[in-house]
Amino acid sequence: METLKAAKILKESGYNPTLVDVFSIKPFDYELIQELASSHALLVVIENHSCFGGVGSIVGTELAKLEAPKARLAQVSINDRFSEVGTEEYLREALHLDAKTIVSTVTSFFEE
Fold it and tell me: Which domains, and CATH codes, for the chain?
């Protein structure tokens, strides 16, 4: 839901995001990552768990294999920390998994 909100905000701000839902990491669609890496300046992996060992790690490994990827990688995920207890809305904001963080991640990349 936060990803869809962020995509809407980004579109309204003149960006053209492509959303890909990775439902499962087995089997992983490596060809899609290669295609996206050649057609996009930035790949943002958004996942609601640790930044280690998930989709972001797989995408990063795949980008490293490419001879000259066009895309850079950014991750919006939970940093290496213990989580708190709270409502889903509270946790999204506290763990920086909200639309605001996603939009900031994308826009800050293009402001560099």
Answer: 2-105 (3.40.50.920)
